[in-house]
What we know:
Low-confidence stretches: none
Distance between the termini: 28 Å
Structural class: alpha+beta
Helix content: 10-25%
Amino acid sequence: MARFQHTVTLVPVPRRRLESCVAALYDLARDTAVEGGRLRLPDGRPLPGLVLARGSHLGPGAQYRPVREEGGRPDADQCLTVLSWDRRRETALEVVTLDDAPDRPARLVCALGLTSAERPRRAWLSATLRWGGERAKYLGGTARLRLDLGRWWQATSHGRPRPAPP
């Protein structure tokens, strides 16, 4: 099996900006209400295009599905699952997308996580693509990204000696 490795240089995002964005998204998700599977924003407006299909809102195992405009039924080919939701420890989500094309069915699974939304320390992402059909063993792959945010901000801060790359 072929294996490729690649290094990517990331432009630094100011720590306070990332922390405020994460806190705002976390607060918005927490303050979103659920009525019969439909999501309502804190101001009472419906959140279009997404429904809670299974489980309790933001609880481990909760599944959210996009809604197609015609008919208002959840899309069976896409699903977002809450793996963990703890503001102080770890928040992790998994997104699964299926393409049931008869000539080349595919399944894409992406998982992403953040350790401590209060003060983000680590972020990670993994993605796996699998194809069906005759050439399935030749197509597809897996990617993983791990980011130590503390070392990243330390390495990109101005005026400080740069340690080894994060």
